[in-house]
Structures are given as structure tokens and as C-alpha cells.
Amino acid sequence: MESLRNSFSTDGGAVSAGSPHRVAGEVHVIIGPMFAGKTTALLRRIKAESSSGRNVVMIKSSKDTRYAVDSVVTHDGAKFPCWALPDLSSFRQKFGEDAYNKLDVIGVDEAQFFDDLYDFCCDVADKDGKIIIVAGLDGDYLRRRFGSVLDVVPLADTVTKLTARCELCGKRAFFTLRKTEETRTELIAGADVYMPVCRHHYANGQEVIQSSKNILGSRALRTGSNLEALPSLI
Ligand SMILES: [Zn+2]
């Protein structure tokens, strides 16, 4: 009877969270390249939920320490306090059971860094009846899937793909181009290393980067040589 009574109780107009099977939660996914305003869109949504009286929390990966450890900060400097964690499964225990049960909305920024994103979204939305809004990169600089953000698309109520502005021509940018020769997938950096580009400039940019790598490689092999127009190594 206790659980039945709980399942019909409300809390300030919203159905209170915490008990299983009480209310259906929601999963919303915001994806796109770097500099597309994903964090800004997430913050706007979280702030709106907070202003309407909902209990909200923001989580980001502790891998991302580009701006501040205990804040989510957008590229244009807007801030919001957050929990910086190595994984999502530890959040509930670290946040505290009571506080967790009172939560209505959870925002997750830089979600591509969380390997346990899928299970966390299932627990939060399906079992605990909360809203979870996830923002992250869908692809890496080689346009391959990045982390587990795409895995939660089948769980989602909505998926929003944002675009940036191509740094070279100003058209809509869908991809992130890495300007350096680093090849690690997880190279956390900003505009010094990455730029948003349109399809045309992504294709051209990769060619330019590849050919400059080849030339540098050839020069390394021919130390002391004054030859120009060095042949490609590949
Ligand atoms: Zn372009």
C-alpha cells in the first residue's frame, strides 16, 4: 500500500521522483561538432527547469578541466556549478540518496567521456522517472563515433544536432577538424587545436593536413637535403 500511495503523491505539481515505476522520465540528446553551442543549449535548458522550480543538477566529466573543475563553462564564458566525476555510476552515492530522490532534472555535459552513459540514462529515466539531458560530441575529428553518446540515441525522446559556423567560409559547420598532428582521440583542447568546418573544408582540410604530414615526414628522412617538391611517403 505504501508504494501505491507513493505512486499517486505529487510534489508541488510535479510528480515527485525516487520510487520505481512512478512516472516516465525523459532522455534528451544534444549533439554536434565543437563550438556548436551544445553546452550553452544544455545550460539554457537546465536554467529554465530550475527557474520553474525543479531540482536540477549538472554533471561533467572530470577529464575535462579546460575551464573550471566545479563549473560547466561554455566557450563564451557562461558558468553553472556542476559535479565533475570520472563516471556516472558513482553519482547517486556521492550526491546522497535523499538529495538524488529529490532531483527532477539531470544535465550531463561532455557526455562522450562517460562509458556508463547508457546504463545511467536507463536508470535515471526508466526507473527513477527523471529527465536527463545529455550533451556531447557525436563524432571525433576523424568523423568516427565518439564514446557512447550515439548509444543513447535509441533511448531518447528527442535528438538535436546543432551546427557551428565554418571557420574558413562561414557556412554551417557539421564537423570538427583537428589542426595539429596529434592522433589521440581524446585530446581535450580548444580553438588552438580544433576548428569547426563545413563538409567542403573538412575534406580539403584533411587533405592539407595529410600532405603537410607527408612533406614533414619526407624532410625528416632527408635531413640535410635541399630538395624541394619532396615525394609523398604514402
Ligand atoms: Zn567551409
What does this structure look like?
This protein has 234 residues and is an alpha/beta fold. It has one domain (24-221): P-loop containing nucleotide triphosphate hydrolases (Rossmann fold, 3-Layer(aba) Sandwich). It is built from six helices and twelve strands. The strands form four sheets. The chain has a six-stranded parallel sheet. The longest helix has 23 residues, at 199-221. The N and C termini lie far apart (72 Å). The relative contact order is 0.16. The model is unreliable at 1-21 and 221-234 (pLDDT under 50). Belongs to the thymidine kinase family.
Provide keyphrases for this structure.
single chain, alpha/beta, six-stranded parallel sheet, two-stranded antiparallel sheet, binds zinc ion, thymidine kinase activity, P-loop_NTPase, identical protein binding, ATP binding
Shape: elongated
Q: Give me the Rg, rounded.
A: 22 Å
Q: Average pLDDT, to the nearest integer? A: 81
* Total number of helices: 6
Helix content: 25-40%
| Major sheet strand order | 5-2-6-7-1-8
What is the H-and-E element order? HEHEEEEHHEHEEEEEEH
Number of strands: 12
Short description:
The protein is of the alpha/beta class. It has 6 helices and 12 strands. The model is unreliable at 1-21 and 221-234 (pLDDT under 50).
What topology does this entry show?
Layout: H1 2-8, E1 26-32, H2 38-51, E2 56-61, E3 71-73, E4 79-81, E5 83-85, H3 91-95, H4 97-102, E6 105-109, H5 117-127, E7 131-137, E8 158-161, E9 164-165, E10 172-173, E11 175-178, E12 194-197, H6 199-221
The protein binds zinc ion.
